[in-house]
Each structure stands twice: as C-alpha cells, then as structure tokens.
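In response to the reviewer comment on reproducibility (Comment 2.3), we provide here a single inverse folding case reported in full, input and output, so that an independent group could reproduce the run without further information from us. The structure tokens appear first.
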C-alpha cells in the first residue's frame, strides 16, 4: 500500500507542488520515499505511476 502526501509551494509567480510517495522495494520489502517537485496539474498522474 502506498502512502501519498502533497504540499503546495509558491515561489514568486510559479506554483509548484512537492509530492512524496512511499514505494515498497521488490528485493528487500523495505519502504522508501520518493520525492518530486512539479506542476500541481501533474501530481495525480505521477502518483498513479509505479
């Protein structure tokens, strides 16, 4: 099960979102966190990808 978190960042005139996704490693079974800063419109597509 993946845990999702999204924070909205605003720098000057640009609006950005920082998305954090928890991903399970297939080799060890441990969870790692993957972070990305992107346009808020692309967050849901990024979270759906594996």
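Designed residues, in position order:
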């Amino acid at each position: 099960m993946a845990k999702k978190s999204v924070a909205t960042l605003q720098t000057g005139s640009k609006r950005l979102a920082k998305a954090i996704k928890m991903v399970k490693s297939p080799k060890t079974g441990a969870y790692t966190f993957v972070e990305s800063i992107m346009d808020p419109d692309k967050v849901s597509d990024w979270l759906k990808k594996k």
